[in-house]
TrEMBL record:
Chain ranges of the SDA1 N-terminal domain: 31-294
Region (Disordered): 197-251
Keywords: Nucleus, Protein transport, Ribosome biogenesis, Transport
Bias kind Acidic residues: ranges: 198-213
Superkingdom classification of source: Eukaryota
Organism: Ophiocordyceps unilateralis (Zombie-ant fungus)
Protein name: Protein SDA1
Keyword Transport: yes
Length: 297
């Protein structure tokens, strides 16, 4: 087939393939990913080809081709040709290893999106446990590595969106707060200081989907036009949104009580934080004054 021939030519010399060859391969990948569910036997190895391309050549792939491969894998997941575990176990190692900022942003967005979709109707406990274990082990096996920050970012985002709400997610943040990388420690501690508030804000954003409200224009319009019950409701609703925004701006930091309640030993956790990060004269983790203030909060 044309696709097999183009792929073979590309793999012979991935870094020197000309623009025409790259565009042709990209178009073929796009086409096949859209029709793969119609020809399951003919495209049985297609997803394996894409995974190998990403794993072996993600650092040297032309940007648009690389992004097309990621997008095609996501499409295959939506068509249920591959499952979430296959997709996430492909994207996650790339996320924590690639030096490309653009690719990291794309991979993180796709991982979060797939986990949210997988939990949209019912909690996918098996998938959640699998990814939570990967996050936990990333920090536990190398506490001094900055890569642990990705485990923290993912857990924090999914907690905020109320996708992960269990003790396993909290244990990821607990071990992060007790790790040996300053950024990972700070992010872990901040989770316990304010994630309930983040949840509330995320819920309001999703329910309102609101744009900035101009109260002056609303009042002016209400003054000119004859008042109706509908306009009155709109004005009151807009005023309530403005008040909520102002309240969020002025809110002081609050503890993440829902996460603290899921800790196995909250008192022991607090003592370990103090002993590890604040008490020693020469701690393993060098924290700035601001970071120490977070820990001591």
């Amino acid at each position: 087939s044309q696709y097999a021939s183009m792929l073979e030519l590309f793999l012979q010399s991935p870094t020197t393939t000309d623009d025409t060859g790259i565009v042709r391969l990209r178009d073929l990948i796009d086409f096949i990913s859209h029709v793969a569910d119609c020809y399951p036997k003919l495209t049985a190895d297609f997803h394996t080809d894409l995974i190998k391309l990403l794993e072996l050549h993600h650092q040297s792939l032309e940007v648009e081709l690389r992004d097309k491969i990621v997008g095609s894998l996501v499409l295959l997941r939506k068509k249920e040709i591959i499952d979430s575990n296959t997709l996430l176990n492909t994207l996650w190692p790339l996320l924590i290893s690639t030096p490309s900022k653009a690719l990291r942003a794309l991979l993180f967005q796709k991982i979060v999106s797939d986990l949210r979709t997988s939990n949209s109707k019912n909690k996918n406990h098996k998938l959640n446990r699998n990814i939570q274990t990967i996050c936990y082990n990333l920090i536990a096996t190398d506490p001094a590595s900055p890569k642990g920050l990705w485990a923290v970012k993912l857990t924090r985002e999914l907690w905020k969106r109320q996708v992960w709400t269990d003790a396993k997610a909290v244990s990821v943040m607990e071990i992060a707060a007790l790790s040996q990388d300053a950024k990972v420690v700070t992010s872990g501690v901040r989770f316990f200081l304010g994630s309930d508030q983040e949840r509330e804000e995320a819920a309001e954003e999703e329910s309102d989907d609101e744009e900035d409200v101009d109260m002056r224009k609303l009042k002016h319009r209400a003054g000119i036009n004859k008042k109706s019950a509908k306009q009155e409701r709109e004005t009151q609703s807009a005023a309530a949104k403005v008040k909520r925004k102002e309240k969020r701006k002025n809110q002081h930091q609050t503890l993440n009580f829902s996460a603290l309640h899921l800790l196995h030993d909250p008192q022991g956790f607090a003592e370990k934080l103090f002993q590890q990060h604040l008490q020693p004269e020469k701690p393993k983790v060098r924290l700035t004054l601001e970071q120490k203030l977070y820990v001591s909060s």
